[in-house]
């Protein structure tokens, strides 16, 4: 009975490892005992980072959403900046899906698109534009359904992916300008911005290893630089924001 359980567990582990990494690397590392095969170790690290980013993306913007709900305010958040970021994220997710890239290479885009669209909606909702907010969510859902379907011309997705680089930069820099103009980062969440920065850094490596697509690599490089600027602003305006919160209380 014990032997059967071990065999079943081994079979399950082999199946999961082969699906997540590759069957070749399972045979190389566990059947042949070559645990330090360079190519397989690199692939294992890449896949691990990729799936780690996806798991993190499920909750990466949750602190920001909770902060908006808790304060019932979208102060300091720019709808235009969120919209530009959402277009870039959606373009990357749709492009990865249609290109047939491994899910570990683009999967977080789907979760981040959902959360970013919710933040954009809340930005409108808490600024007294509830009708526009619901209209925006409906229109976005319809557009994404089309982009993920075979009916959307692939040339459009390529164009969107090419445009995602300036869109990413524009969205992030718009938010950075908004922060600078207000001398405050308002309801921006430190945890969310830190996770976005670390995730984009890791994505540069995984994109090089898994896709080799220069458009994707450049997009994440630009995203890393812009996320770094906003993260720096949070620390720079930290005392000013704390004083504003204390005065409001």
Describe this structure in words.
This protein is an all-alpha fold and 249 residues long. The protein has 3 domains: 1-35, no CATH class; 50-152, Monooxygenase (Up-down Bundle); 162-248, Up-down Bundle (Monooxygenase), CATH 1.20.1280. It contains 12 helices and no strands. It has helices at 2-20, 23-31, 38-57, 62-71, 79-99, 103-106, 108-125, 130-147, 154-182, 190-210, 214-236, 238-248.
In short:
Belongs to the MPDU1 (TC 2.A.43.3) family. Its main location: membrane. With 249 residues, the protein is mainly alpha-helical.
Task: Output the radius of gyration.
Answer: 21 Å
Please state roughly what percent of the residues sit in beta strands, choosing from under 5%, 5-15%, 15-25%, 25-35%, 35-45% or over 45%.
under 5%
Shape, principal axes of CA atoms: elongated
Low-pLDDT windows of residues: none
Count of helix runs: 12
Q: Major sheet, described briefly?
A: none
What is the SS-derived class?
mainly alpha
Q: What is the arithmetic mean of pLDDT?
A: 83
Number of E strands: 0
**What is the CATH class name of the largest domain?**
Mainly Alpha
SSE pattern, N- to C-terminal? HHHHHHHHHHHH
What percent of the residues sit in helical stretches (DSSP H or I)?
Answer: over 70%
Could you say what the CATH topology of the largest domain is called? Monooxygenase
Question: What's the number of structural domains?
Answer: 3
The CATH architecture of the largest domain is Up-down Bundle
Q: N-to-C terminal Cα separation, in Å?
A: 65 Å
Main location: membrane
Membrane topology: Multi-pass membrane protein
Protein name: Mannose-P-dolichol utilization defect 1 protein homolog
Family: Belongs to the MPDU1 (TC 2.A.43.3) family.
